[in-house]
Structures are given as C-alpha cells and as structure tokens.
Amino acid sequence: MTHPLQPLLHDSVVVLTAPSQAWSTADGDIDGVGIHGFFHSDLRVLDRVGLTVAGSALEHLATAGTDAATAVFTALARGLDDTTADPRVRVERTREVRAGVLRETIVVRNALKQPISTTVSISVRGDFTPMQVVKAGMTGAEHPVEAAVDGSTLTYTSGPVTAVLRAEGARIAMDGAAATLDWDVELAGASAATLSWEISVDDPTAVVAGAGPSAQREAFTISTGDSRLASWLERALADLQSLRMTTTARPDDVFLAAGAPWFFTLFGRDSIWAARMLLPLGTDIAASTLRVLAALQGTDTVGETAEQPGKIMHELRPSALTIPGEGVVLPPLYYGTVDATALWIALLHDAWRWGMPAAEVEELLPALEAALVWMRDHGDSDGDGFLEYRDTTGHGLANQGWKDSGDSIQWNDGTLADGPIALCEVQGYAYEAAIGGAELLEAFGRTGADEWRTWAADLKDRFAASFWIDDPAGAYPAIALDAAKRRVDTVTSNIGHLLGTGILQDGQAELIARRLASPELSSGYGLRTMSSAAGGYWPLSYHGGSVWAHDTAIAITGLAREGFAAEAEQLSDGLLAAADGFGYRMPELHSGDSSAETAAPIPYPAACRPQAWSAAAAVAVLTARLGLTADAPAGRLDVTPGSAAANTRVHGLRFAGEPRDIEVA
Q: 460 and 520 in contact (C-beta within 8 Å)?
C-alpha cells in the first residue's frame, strides 16, 4: 500500500513574486507532479502548463533568469530543423511571475534559409488545490472548477476565486478543466516570431498581498576578497525582493514572507529574524514588520488559537491549516509560538539602535510593555521562572520553538522529551528582551526599567543553576527542561543562540564556542542542529542533524559579539561553502553530512527556497565579518573588521537613515 508523500523540491525551478509562485521541471513545463504548478495565495491555480511545437516536446538546453521573478528556458525544436549538425531552430520561453500574474513570452527563432510553417501550443489545466493538500502529497479543489471561453480569453472559477487567461491570437479548445492554446506560426528564413499569454488571479479571501521592491536593497553593492560572500549577497537580496509582502488589512506595512512554497505568508518568528539580520541595510523592513505584528498582538486568552494578552502571533493563513495525517489543525491566526514575543522586543530594541525614527519607536512602546508582561505572566505558565510552552488543544504544534517538528526535543538516547518544555535559547531571548526593553523604557521616559532589569538578573541566575550539564568534554547547556524540570541532555545548535544575549555567566561563552566549533556540530557546511554523537542524529532529519543557514548565522553573530572570531569565521566559511554548492540560493536547510566526506552539500529534498532567513543570513555573515555595532542614540557606528574582511568594499549600508560606505584595506 502506498501513502501520499510530501513533494520534494530540490530539483524543481521556482519563479516567484509574493504571494504568487510557479514551480516547474528544469525545462519549464508544469506537469502536475508533486509541487509543480502556478500558485497564488495558498492555492494551486494551474497544475499543467506544457509547451509543444509542431505537436512535439522540445529539447531543453538551459535555464537562466535575471531575478527571482523571471526565468528563461531555452530549447531546440529539432523536429523543424534540417539534418546538419548545427541546431538552427530554437525556442526561448520567458516566464515572469508578479503578484497574482503568470506571464509567458515565447520566441521561436528560425536560422534556416527556408521558411517554416508550424503550430505552437500551450496546454493548461485549472486545479485550485489548496497548498496544505499539495504539501500532503494529494490533490483536490475545495470547490468545483468551472471554465468558460470567450474568443482568446479563458476564465476559471472555483468558489470565490477567479483566474482569467488571455492568449491573443490563439485558438482555445476546452476539455473539462484542461485547455489547449494554439497559434499558427509562419516563419520566414532567418526570422523570429513572438507569442505571449498570461493568467491573472483574483482571490478576495486572501489575507496577504504583494509589495513592491525596496530601492534601498537595490542600492546596496559589495566587492570582497572572498567572492563567495558577494555572490551570496547578490542572490540573497534579489530573492528577498520577491519575498516582500503585506497583509490585506495593512497594505503599507511590508514584511518578508517566511519562504516558498509552504510558508508564503506572515510568520512571527521568521519575519522577525529576517528583519533583524537585515538591519545594516536599513530599518524600514524592521519597522513595518514590528507594526504589522503589533497590530495582531494578542489581547485575550483564547485556548483554541493560543492567543494571550501581549503575545506575538506565529502564522497567518486565509483559512484553517489542516495537515493531513499529522492530526494538526491550526486556526487562520495562530499564536502557538513561545519565542516570537521576546524576539519582537529584541527587534524593536535593535532597530532603535540602528536608527529607527524615535516617533516610530515610541508608537510601539505600548506593545512593548504588553509583550514584556506576557513573558512574565503568561510565557511562564507554571511559575518556575522560565518561559515554556505546551499545546493545550491536542491539534496544535507540539513544539513551539524554532525547532517545531514533533521529534525536535530529544534526550541523548533519542527518546522524546515530555512537555511543558522550557527551551534554553528562549530564556536567552527573554533575558535580552528584558534588558533591551528596560533600556527603551528608560530612554523614552517610561516607568518599569528597574523592574525588568531585576527580572532579567533573576532569570540569569536561575538559568545558570538549572540548565547547565557537567560533562568530561566541558559543561554545556541542556537544550531544554522537560515537564519534570530535568535537563534534556542532547547537544544541539540551540546553545549557539545564547551567545550575545547576556544571559551567560563568566566563562560559559567559551565553553559554548568550543562546542560549536567541534566536528560533532560543525559540519564544514554550517552548524548541525544536533550533534553527530547524539543517539537521534540523522543528517537528513529536519531538526535532528541537518544544517539551517539562519541557525548557523545566529551562532556566528553571537560568537562575533562574544569575541570568538576564529569560531565565527569557521562557521562562516562553512556557510559560504554551502552557498557556493547551492548556486548561492541557500535553501531552508540542507543535510548535515560532513564536508570531509562530500564534495558538495547534499540537499534536504523538501527544503523551501528561497527562504527569508536563509537569504538574510548572508547579511548576518557580512555583519559579523565587519564587526558592526550600532548605537544611533549615541551617534556611533563601530566597525571592527576581522582578517576575513580584507579587501571588502560595501556601498549602501544604512545607519540612522543615512547611507554609509565601508572599505577594509
């Protein structure tokens, strides 16, 4: 008996502009297999887009694109060619995806001396399967799919969603939800013909919409002694332009969608981390991300949605998210995250330090105060002084930190820990948030700063007493405390998130730095999520041995802040090697296999790409290499570059609203 399987992504081509995306085979055809399709706002509108010339498939030569929203598929029409060795008839198919629109331009080039008469055909099929069903390896629209043709226009409807396809000059023939667009083409010798078609989608139920590109991102340029970093940054920033999105409720506040295809929407944690890493490029995306999340901040206690007063949300969908086979059903607005609230505070503090306008910061201070109170009164659900999580619904996320898969919190022998779970890194986030929040309250003349500094100091003492595990190789923090307040003893990458938060005591950062640089955690392509010595380790486990670029970048930033330059550079070099292996589009995660054993990083086959925080990790690596420290209220931007930053020239960084250029000889 076969079971539906989540589609793999690693060998498919994606063209995207939020909230729309098209996934295809390498030759550009969308064949309805797995992830392939044209999607808009969590619906697969088309699951077939095929191109033939003279009734035959083409022979693919190359795929290239100028940006994330465009791809050019070049192929040969061998059936129209002569018998000589040189191919003389080729087809260039340019696909563009903009918000709500898929457009294709097809150019047939004839280099023969004689004319050609042929037919160019595009086959399409309306599908309207929800993304969550596609992710489960299944198909099926929620509403019947209806199609109507009027001349060269085809209109699909499914429930409230309408998609209009226009193909000027084409004959359209229908067969149920499938359609064929035919153009008769007469090509003289040494000439070319151009055809085009497009489909536009209107989904009145959408909760997110596309946003225009950032001019500040386009103004950023870099040259480095290590060309890999410059190449990664160039690709990453282009991808981030296509991940810019707004909610329909707040169309002026831009955030970064978490990633394509599965998480093409607002995610509290993901959007916050991406914006935080991008602060050296300007505070605009941070400020708007803070505002859109503050507008959704919890006000009541609602068990079904995990909402609590002051809490920052986890994810936003147009309707309930059901994950078939896993027993998970999440409401459209879901608050099941333990870390987004503290991270929101940290982003507000860091954005202020990078020069977010004082009036914009002050506007968010009531949300800051509510978030601080949530950490104390709700985040600590059992009164032990630590932030922990537990799903009370039976159908929410079992784990609610960034490692949110069901098996991510393990003992060293591979058995699962029982919740409520208090994650180590969340305590670090909470400490940093309390200290940063106190600084903001004090700077803006509000009360409570001393109270939160005292709360943070107590948390720091409790953390040192409760989380650390003695070990012959050196003490280290447990990944978590379980329901019985036992230290869950697996060595994981979570400990890297503690660096730079301020929660560590003297000498503890050095112990963590040594662990992160060990061959059990450092794969040569980044930081493994779990030590290779752990009983549950597997290099292709989602959170139990794989490498996540953002996770490694957080550790790199922390190492740099704590003064461990060699360890930071070791992990940076690993990410750069991985970026090179993935053509500089870093996926959501990749295998934890060692670089000593593989000549290139091995993909995690279902990883999203592009992914906002994986792309933003490139900026975090640059920040660590340059040693950037911002204090806009004091008017100071410090630059303390390490040796790896030699011959780096950066144009278009932004500090306190003004562009800054940096050159390291």
A: no
23 CB burial (10 A radius; 0-12, 13-18, 19+)? buried
Residues 273 and 336 in one domain: yes
- For residue 79, the domain's CATH number is 2.70.98.40
Q: Look over the chain and give the mean of its residue pLDDT values, rounded to a whole number.
A: 96
* Same-domain check for residues 414 and 534: yes
Cα(642)–Cα(626) distance, integer angstroms: 7
- Which tokens hold the place of 394? 């039976």
Final residue in a domain of this structure, among 169, 202, 235: 202
Strands (E), 425-551: 468-469, 476-477, 480-481, 487-488
Structural domain includes residue 194: yes
pLDDT reading at 1 higher than 60: no
pLDDT on residue 217 = 77
Integer Cα distance of 635 and 144 in angstroms: 60
User: Which of 53-62, 318-327, 555-564, 624-633 is the least confident region?
Assistant: 318-327
Q: Residues 436-474: pLDDT tens digits?
A: 999 999 999 999 999 999 999 999 999 999 999 999 999
Residue 539 tokens read as 């290099």
Range of the domain at 232: 208-664
**Alpha carbon 136 to chain centroid distance?**
20
Task: Give yes or no: residues 156 and 271 share one domain.
Answer: no
pLDDT digits (tens, 9 = 90+) for 142-179: 999 999 999 999 999 999 999 999 999 999 999 999 99
Per-residue CA distances from 276 to 235, 289, 333, 495 (Å): 19, 10, 23, 19
- Look up tokens 């998609």; give the residue: 163
| Residues forming beta bridges with residue 242, ordered by sequence position | none
Percent of the chain with pLDDT over 70: 100
Yes or no: say if 166 and 159 are a contact pair by the CB < 8 Å rule. Answer: no
Q: Across-strand partners of 654?
A: 659
Tokens of 534: 């752990």
Question: Are residues 334 and 472 located together in one domain of the fold?
Answer: yes
Three state DSSP letters for 44-77: EEEEEEEEEECCECCEEEEEECCCCCEEEEEEEC
With respect to residue 5, please indicate whether it lies within any of the assigned structural domains.
no
Q: What is the 3-state secondary structure (H, E, C) of 238-288?
A: HHHHHCEEEECCCCCCCEECCECCCECCCEHHHHHHHHHHCHHHCCHHHHH
Domain termination residue (choose one: 172, 202, 232) = 202
- The pLDDT score that the predictor gives to residue 605 is 97
Q: What is the pLDDT of residues 209-235, one digit of tens each?
A: 999 898 877 789 999 989 999 999 999
Q: What is the pLDDT of residue 574?
A: 98
Q: Is the CB of residue 532 less than 8 Å from the CB of residue 545?
A: yes
H/E/C letters for each residue in 3-25?
A: CCCCCCCCCCEEEEECCEEEEEC
* 385 and 525 within one domain: yes
pLDDT, one tens digit per residue, over 385-394 is 999 999 999 9
Distances (CA, A) of 391 to 101, 214, 418, 420: 39, 38, 12, 8
State the pLDDT at residue 322: 86
3-state secondary structure of 303: coil
Q: Please give the structure tokens belonging to residue 489.
A: 């003893």
- Predicted confidence at residue 88, as pLDDT, reads 96
Straight-line distance from the first to the last Cα atom of the chain, in angstroms, rounded to the nearest whole number: 64
| Residue 299 confidence (pLDDT) above 80 | yes
Residues 482 and 574 in one domain: yes
Q: Which two tokens stand for residue 252?
A: 């002026």
Asked whether residue 400 is assigned to any structural domain, the reply reads: yes
